[in-house]
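Can anyone check this?
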Amino acid sequence: AASRRAKMAAAEKRVVGAAPAGYTALAVKFGERQRSSHCLLVKEHQVREGAGATHPPRRTLFVLNVPPYCSPDSLSRLFARCGCVQSVDICEKPGEKKEKLTSKFFNCKTVTGFQVAYVVFRKPAGVQAAKALSQEGPLLISTESHPVKTGISKWIASYAASVVDQEELKAEVDAYMQDYDKKIAEEEAKAAKEEGVPDEEGWVKVTRKGRKPGLPRTEAANLRVLEREKRKRARKELLNFYAWQHRETKREHIAQLRKKFEEDKQRIALMRAQRKFRPY
């Protein structure tokens, strides 16, 4: 057992030492019971002065190879021993801009692979202290005081998070639609104001408007459209549903063709009789 632990420790040292140029490898483990370790590749984030206020130079640690089960809270706790952590941003790719959350319900994104992270310290000394963690043993992502949910507990938490408050959802959707209608009205008013007015080069923008206005975006109009589509779909689905209905339809069609043929024959005979010469 002692020799196996020594071999595992030597393997960890080899892995930690095999970092790409410019990076420092930090060994981490999911939990205490896990034997194998995982490597986070870290380095000081280099940007031009004034290029990015979100990730300032000399205070930002760039982290590669972040596993999907490692959350911003986990990274903040891992590097808290190095100094006060101001913020942690996790992205799919380096340089990806963080999107502003505009919805509480429609911004859920499933993490499917390894990511990158930007850990911002309050002082530059935190970055150097984080790089010095390579000399210590593997850091634990999930601890007894701060466990990471996995398995059934994670599924239960995901299911609980998927059940939303209908009143809050309705309020958010209504607010979004009001903003959208306001935006469309402003665009239409702007287009009407600029209609027929030449631009700087003398060109006049011409837009085509239909004769019939669009349907109003009201609940009653939407219900009427849905009801009409439902009736149309029901007629299509129930027409010739059974084989005997199909045979009856063909028989009626043939009978109508024969009736029309006899009527045409009578009309032609009448026309011929009217054209016949009768001197008396």
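Reply from J.R.: I decoded it. Strands lie at 24-29, 38-44, 60-66, 85-91, 115-121, 139-140.
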